[in-house]
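2024-03-11 09:14:02 INFO receiving multi-entity request
2024-03-11 09:14:02 INFO entity count = two
2024-03-11 09:14:03 INFO echoing inputs for audit
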Amino acid sequence: MYEFLGEYLFFFYLGIKYSLILALVPIALGFVVGLLAALGDIYGGKIASILINIYVEFFRGSPLVVQAILFYFTIPELLNIRIDRLVAVLIAFTLNTGAYQKGYLKGAIEAVYEDQMMAARSLGMSKLKAIRHVVLPQALRIVIPGWTNEYASMSMSTPAAIAVGGVPELTTMAHSVASQTFRSFETYTFAALIYFIWIYLSVKVLEIIYERVKIPGFEA
Amino acid sequence: MADVVMEARNVWMEYKDVKALRDVSLKVSEGEIKVLFGPSGSGKSTLLRCLAMLTKPTKGKVFLRGEELTSPNADIDKARAKIGFVFQNILLFHHLRALGNVTLGLRHVLGLPKEEAKERAMKALREVRMERWVDHYPAELSGGQQQRVGIARALAMEPDIILFDEPTSSLDPELKGEVIDTMKELAEKGRTMLIATHEMHFAREAADEMIFLDEGRIIEQGTPEHFFTNPSTDRAARFLARLIREG
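2024-03-11 09:21:47 INFO inference complete, emitting structure
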């Protein structure tokens, strides 16, 4: 009963490609944003901390769909500019996952006790060197299990791009196939299977990585 | 008279309403071993941390080889590289093996090339008899072994002085011995050390001078001989009697 999908493989190929872009680019950039935000919150002083928390609370406290709309319609209109829909969605997704990743990263950095920092400073390391060689190597290992949740969650939130329309991600493409073939059950179950395999495999890979790099005595 | 390595001059440390150190002055000269002792909360840890500038004293001055570390334009990181610190709760870097713990400062503070750092780290690890454990993570070592790696980490930097903050007090009784033996060996080699400890046998054997601290003040100081035979203050006498009774 699924044979007809063979004719539409290109649709799914395109969908997978765009969904991967919508997930991986924001997750990677969001990691940088989240890490800087976490470090800024912990070490950057009061004002930095307040600004960072306003950013985080805004993106964690409003729906992803609304954020996508904001960056594609509302903000460009206010600034009187035009913005590519894909770029707008990528920005919204990056800032959203960055806010969540900041939470996980901050928790992990704080779990590496202040004591570790003191031990590093006692050797004559500057704060920056201590962060780089002692705090982060530990925090980035500890964070993996929590970070994996955010990875899966962001990946499955990519259909929020539908809110701005016209980004050919997987759910949009499935919708298009279903409306051309009137076979929505097969089409959507096939799409769901693709999401499942994608998330399942990458979570497994992350688990294997965690097993290999985790710090003895500090299992989560 | 040997050169003064480390000096505290009228050091005060005040937190909100606690005076942790009150006008403490002391000197440690080249090759000298001084032991700090006193009840918990007497300011031993605070004093050692002030000397290493891990906390900044509220008032007073700290010198390393005549250079004032409390001066606003002192290069504290550079000074800390010359001051070894052994912590009560050990504080090895959890993510690094014993060897990595010792090479970290050599590589990233002193900037030694990898091979040279490794050689020097191995030498320090041999000195504390931990050369067979270099590939173990801290969590895979006993407390005594961890603390010996902690000592090697400080030693490898070839510091001018090593400050010990109750290095055995977090260890089980049967593990204290190996750390004390390590410190005795360092003492015999003429290392300059300032040691906060309640191990009175060690103090009696190794210390050139003992300093009794209570409520943030130096109450009395003198040779082990003086303290163990004829302490001049009641407080020191009572505290020592208790330590010896319990030890």
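2024-03-11 09:21:48 INFO post-check: Chain A has a mean pLDDT of 95.
2024-03-11 09:21:48 INFO post-check: Chain A touches chain B through 21 residues (CB under 8 Å).
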